[in-house]
Amino acid sequence: MIISDKERNYHQKCPICKNYKLKYWFKLKGFTIVKCRECGVSFVKDIVTQKELDYHYGADLEVVNPAGDSVYLKEQNIENLKYFYRKLKSLIVKKVPKGKLLDVGCNAGLFLDVMDGFDRYGVERSTAAGMVAKEKYGDKIFIGTFEDYKAPEVLFDCISVQDVLDHMTNPVEVMNKCNKLLKSGGLLVVKVHDMSCLYAKFSGKKFYALVPPSHLFFFNRTSLTKTLEKASFKVLFFKHLAHRLFLSTVFFRLSREGERKTFYKLYRALEGTFIGKIMIYKNLHDLITVFAVKKH
Ligand SMILES: [Zn+2]
Predict the structure, then answer these.
(1) What is the distance between the alpha carbons of residues 238 and 236, in angstroms, rounded to a whole number?
(2) Higher pLDDT pick, 251 / 118
(3) Is the pLDDT score of 31 beyond 90?
(4) Near ion ligand 1, which residues have CB within 5 Å?
(5) How many Å lie between the centroid of ligand 1 and the Cα of residue 252?
(6) Share of the chain above pLDDT 90, in %
(7) Distance from the alpha carbon of residue 287 to the mean position of ligand 1, in angstroms
(8) What is the pLDDT of residue 122?
(9) What is the Å distance from ligand 1's center to 9 Cα?
(10) How far apart are CA 158 and CA 97, in angstroms?
(11) Residue 119's CB: how many other CB atoms inside 10 A?
């Protein structure tokens, strides 16, 4: 789906902190990426419509698969994902040992699966993934956008938003909705790519998370804090948790959704092989998780 420059609308001010001090960074796949001088967030200046996003996410094939879900969710990668989820759980239960949990962007329910002991709810936009979660958690899974989600009457003790905020067209609105759905003092856990890590700085424009229009926002600690504060949250702490993945998946990441063909070929060549299955424990601080509470 091609939108001509004439039809295109652009953000004139920062969607997070609302000031006009935007600095042009670079253009990628026809999208203009700018940095806000005030809060430090980088974002896609083009106002991407829901129709465009539906078209983008509907696009088939691993090569253009948003966030490479089909790669990360392959049977053999699930245990790798759970390695991260269990670490996250150990931090959550220190603050909230039990209660009602909502996972926004719950996918096939893999994070919910490790959160036994909680009353588990999820929201998932992709029908295919949401149906898998529904088989396990029934009506507690809502398939659709978070905007359309009507929560149960009782408020949540904890809400997690993992690998979701970078995709959203209005992150502050998403955080506002989380705030409304949480009990006073409830815990919010948000995981995004961290543009302030050294790896992102060295990679510059080549950083693997710079994939518009899958990702529309690129956060760092400052802009993430700002986003949460706008929605009346108090940040408790940040964590860079290690991920475990196969060597072949590392090449998939480097291929930036298949765009850089040499890496993609390497991924395809190694996938499922003995070498490809070498386990990598990765902590490049490229993913940051923030823990915050709803202000009383
Ligand atoms: Zn800003």
Answers:
(1) 7
(2) 118
(3) yes
(4) 14, 16-17, 36, 38-39
(5) 31
(6) 61
(7) 20
(8) 97
(9) 18
(10) 10
(11) 16
Q: Pairing between strand 22-28 and 99-104? A: unpaired
Ligand 1 center from residue 273 Cα (angstroms): 45
Q: Structural domain boundaries of the chain?
A: 22-242+286-294
User: What are the CA-CA distances from residue 295 to residues 93, 104, 124, 159, 230 (Å)?
Assistant: 19, 20, 27, 14, 12
CB atoms within 10 A of CB 67: 19
Structure tokens at 32: 């203009």
Q: What is the pLDDT of residue 164?
A: 93
Q: Write the CB contacts of 216 (distance below 8 Å, at least 6 apart in sequence).
A: 43, 44, 48, 166, 167, 168, 169
User: Average pLDDT, stretch 51-56?
Assistant: 84
In this prediction, residue 67 carries a pLDDT of 43
Centroid of ligand 1 to alpha carbon of 222 (angstroms): 10
For residue 70, the CA-to-ligand 1 centroid distance in Å is: 33
Separation of CA 8 and ligand 1 centre (Å):
21
Identify the pLDDT of residue 76.
66
Distance 4 CA to ligand 1 centre (A): 26
**C-alpha angle 2-24-176 in degrees, rounded to nearest 5:** 80
**Residue given tokens 């202000």 in the structure block:** 295
Q: Does domain 22-242+286-294 have CATH number 3.30.420.10?
A: no
The long-range contacts involving 136-143, CB below 8 angstroms and separated by at least 24 positions, are 136/109, 136/112, 137/109, 137/112, 141/106, 141/109
Judged by average pLDDT, the poorest of 16-25, 111-120, 143-152, 171-180 is 143-152
Q: How far is the CA of 236 from the centre of ligand 1 (A)?
A: 21
